Amino acid sequence: MSCKKKYPFRIGTSSYIIPADIIPNIEYLKDKVDDVEIVLFESDEMSNLPSDEDICRLKEIAVHDDLTYSIHLPLDVYIGSHDRAVRQRSLDKCRRVVELTGVLKPSAYVMHAEAGPDMNVATFSRPEKERFAQHVHESLDEFFSSRSLHPSSCCVETLNYPISILDDVIAATGVSVTLDIGHLELYGYSVEDHLRSYLDRARVFHLHGICDGKDHRGLEHMRPEILDMVMKVLRNNPDKSRVVTIEIFSEKDFLSSCMEMMRFVG
Hints:
- By secondary structure, this protein is α/β, with parallel strands linked by helices.
- 39% of the residues lie in helices and 17% in strands.
- It is built from nine helices and ten strands.
- The protein is globular, with a radius of gyration of 18 Å.
């Protein structure tokens, strides 16, 4: 089943659909989607960063199959940490990924702005939220000052806290937004309000359902009225450079999600 070239945006999914490494997943997906979100991680114990050979193959597939890549920067980066050393290590990880993947000319870089592992910024006091926003601002300023990367290609994702905490930072730095609709639903934030406030900055959308309190499930588990609302907004505001990622991690969820998306073809 293919969703490729069927919508007024680039439809995509994650690089972990079949139980294999990145390249076999890309080979499987290249004729089914317009974009693949390459989810990268790097730690002392393990890393899935592509080799130089992998990068060359990814570039070949992109050219031959009209495929783009959005790059999800490592999850264990904390650019809003109160600890400057932690912020610096986080930025170093992001820099390595950008340097490695730059030749792929990614459609976007998706970034989490977090304070630390298992920390929910939504529970912070007002002064703590202000300091968090300041640390994110400082990190982004440093990140872009040393790179040729345009700020708009970096998309700060909606997580478990109100993205409005970063409104001033987003405006000042010129970064884009990843509107993760599944996260908004999971944490009880208004999808309609976020579409109204952030559509112009939303370079990337993430779609996924929620089942038994767990997100990143197939779109059959997404409230139909929410999916309908999002698709109506996207159709009324066509943008071929925008990426809409069905952010799930199994072939079963991918195929069922494609079936759901067929409702919006034509």
